[in-house]
Amino acid sequence: MTDLAKYPPFDRWHDWTELDAKAWPKKVERKYTLVPTTCFNCEAGCGLIAYFDQETGEITKIEGNPEHPGSRGRNCAKGPATLNQVYDPERVMHPLKRVGERGSGKWERISWDQALQEVGDKIREAFLADRRNGVMYHVGRPGEDGYTDRVLKAWGCDGHNSHTNICSSNARIGYQSWMGHDRPSSDFANAEVIFLISAHLESGHYFNPHAQRIMEAQARGAKIICVDPRLSNTGAKADFWLPTWPGTEPFLLLAIARLLVQNETWNAAFMERWTNWETYLTEKHPDRPVEFSQMRAALLDEYAEYTPEAAEQKTGVDADTIREIADLIGEHPTKFASHNWRAAGA
Ligand code: SF4
Predict the structure, then answer these.
(1) Given 86, 113, 132, which residue is the final one in a domain?
(2) pTM
(3) How far away, in angstroms, is 64 Cα from ligand 1 center?
(4) Which of 38, 40, 46, 49 most suits a substitution to test ligand 1, by most atoms within 8 Å of the C-beta?
(5) Tens digit of pLDDT for each residue in 283-305?
(6) pLDDT digit string (tens) for 206-232?
(7) Which atom belonging to ligand 1 lies closest to the Cα atom of 42?
(8) Helices (H) and strands (E) in the chain, counts
């Protein structure tokens, strides 16, 4: 009798033996080499381990990788289902070139050398004719952090198209503009207040590693605020569910920001260190000295219309709840983590 284990111990991954479940009730032992890999069925990029059968050389199953620092062996169902993609009989394994009319479904297999040569020739032709925008690159889901974009920019092309040009693009452009990275991971693990605009705690597959930390933080006592018109999984798990009228979310955010400034519970030191308040004062309040001490009054002027009562009218969230949320955030100025993605972000 042995103890149940969640995963094979790491030091035995190179040579792991287990019983073949399909051979039951016979007890047939199979020897595996466990190879770490990455799931790319969404951008969370969770860790996986592939079980290579040492006898047949085939992968017989795929499981979560407990050593992966992000996903820690906890995957959604799509991760282990990667096996179906590896052995899908319709998987495209080689470059194919259309030989019939467009839409006729006729293709022939060509070599990689031929594919690269033909594609390279066409790109060159467009460049020589000064048709930079005759070159377009389409990728389903970009799995790297900007390298391809840099190549396209070096070529003078503005032709990157992908799933992410539309999906979540508003959230991405916001993040990219102010922190230079379009898929940030807030420090949910250490947060005391977590503010989510969108349904990504559980229902958004991108955020599996986030969701794990968010749930752990909540179990430790962190409060979760979810702004989502739907009673999503995130809303159902949250301490506060704020179902704003779609499109009114910025009003709610400004009302909360106004209360933080008014109550002096905003993180002024952070604002002074990390925002362009000098530019803001110079451009928007030229009558005021360019001193940080002016910011509170300047922001209260700017945000004057965003009272809790006005926000209630606009968003449908009652004024007292907005005050309660602002108080909660104000009590934890350095332990606040947020994320915005689809829904209000897109
Ligand atoms: S959340 Fe699911 S689909 Fe996304 S990378 Fe992780 S296992 Fe794969």
Answers:
(1) 86
(2) 0.84
(3) 10
(4) 46
(5) 999 999 999 999 999 999 999 99
(6) 678 888 999 999 999 999 999 988 888
(7) 4
(8) 12, 12
* Partners of 48 in beta bridges: 37, 64
| Residue-number span of the structural domain to which 73 is assigned | 10-86
Note the Cα 264 to chain centre separation in Å: 32
Side-chain-side CA neighbours of 219 within 13 Å: the count stands at 7
Distance from C-alpha of 101 to C-alpha of 98, rounded to nearest angstrom: 8
In a domain? residue 169: no
Nearest by Cα to 222 from 214, 210, 212 = 214
Tell me: pLDDT of 202 over 60. no
Same structural domain for residues 100 and 73? no
**What is the tens place of the pLDDT at every residue in 183-195?**
788 899 999 999 9
| Ligand 1, CB cutoff 6 Å, lining residues | 39, 41-42, 44-46, 71, 75-76, 78-79, 205, 208
